[in-house]
What we know:
- The chain is built from eleven helices and nine strands.
- The chain is α+β, with helices and mostly antiparallel strands.
- Helix 3 runs antiparallel to helix 4.
Amino acid sequence: MNGDKFISEKNFYIDERISNHQWDMRNFHYHNSFEIYYLVSGNRKMLVQDKVYELCPSDIVLLRPNILHRSMNSGVHSRINIVFDNLFLDNYFTKSASEYLTSCFDTEFIKLNNNENQQFLKIFSEIKNKHNSHLPCFVSLAKILELFINAKKRQETEFSTRIFLSNTSEKITSVIEYISKNYNIISSIDEIARYCYINKSYLCRLFKKETGLTVFEYLNLVKIYRSCELIRNTNDTIADIAIKCGFSSISYFSYTFKKLIGKTPLQFKKYNSAD
């Protein structure tokens, strides 16, 4: 993997990177910054909280601070990351302007159309060649965010947002919806298969094929994501959260949490309390 962090200022940087090998970020992680992820070429799967996105060139993933995400196995691909934090916004924009510009982050996924993609690449080129431009970076960033706000509005009217794969079957969509609503009371994969009127073996094969995850992996992903929300936003004990999220034992909850997040629930709680 090689990359070029050609713009790096305090609280703001842009990273253009090419990956030429299989790569898997095993643990979920999050940043204290806003992140714009733009796929230039290739294909990639990204897990954002409890959703899976299959990305194609010109697709955008928008991540607010503290949003759990990780990448899945990818082949050769190139990407652009634009990262900035609230301090950068505070330095250049009023509170109302910052709230407006970051409203595009209310959605996690945007598929730019051809015109929007050309506009983005033009603005990006201005930033990349800032030494030949009279526009400061924050002006170019504002133009990009304004572009995304309009793309978000256009996308909402077209109902084109893709959660999971764009060609996810109705069967798998019903499974995802069932898990999302009942994650804390599901006792087995058999239960999911019965509810969705799908043969268990067929369900497991189809789910893995369309999402890249096993049904069990996705179920645990939803449970852990919900537990992170509770740890951040409530004063519940770790034991209570484990029960609320459908884990039968604290030890297995802690094991699964650390496997996905890279921290124990207690470490995660202390880290977020420090913020």
